[in-house]
Amino acid sequence: MLRGVLLDLDNTLVDQRAATAEALHRWLPSLGVPCTPELLVLWDEVAERHFKAWRERRVTFREQRRGRLREFLPRVRIPYAEGELDAIFADYLIAYESSWRAFPDVDQALAAIAAAGLRTAVLTNGSTEQQHQKLARTGLTGRLGPVFTVEDVGTSKPDPAAFLSACARWGLPPASVLSVGDRHDLDVLPARRAGLLAVHLDRHDGGPHDEPHRIRSLAELPLDW
Ligand SMILES: [Mg+2]
Prior knowledge:
Blueprint lengths: L3 E4 L8 H15 L6 H19 L5 H15 L9 H13 L8 H10 L3 E6 L3 H10 L9 E3 H4 L6 H11 L6 E5 L2 H10 L3 E5 L12 E2 L10
Helix pairs in contact: 1-4, 2-3, 3-4
Bound molecules: magnesium ion.
């Protein structure tokens, strides 16, 4: 019997993809570089690689930010000195953080979950500090149950242990928890491997289309398991 809904944060509750694009559209022109679709892709690719190094504890959070710039800035021919990296990233962050918004379907989904008598929690591959800031900025603080980050559970999705640790901390058996997230490879498959129920929130219709529990919006979240 379902007792709780374990929600991913980025691109599930908060539109991180749009926030990144909006931030780059403001930040890059401030450096004299026009923002193109190719640069958005490049930024994401570089960011994901360095963020992964942080999640795997190979670098500090600040160092992964510097690493992203060391790789990205030469690609857009922006000269920099090593000592300027933190200040340059701070400018990007101002644009990024002011672009954080919750998806419009979140309110309805949280109301439906509460009406069904279910609890909520968050499991995210982000950092504790930044994810709490994100929840605060988007008006979600206090509207969800516990927030479990990589730093809390000691490992990151897709490690099934991240789900098991979150359920153990939450005090709910995995079989009574529904994982909901935008990444089939991170939020759905490993959740099932850990014994949870799972739904793929496929907002951009990226598939896989043969996933039996696939929804396009949180408004479609099935709660009758
Ligand atoms: Mg996500």
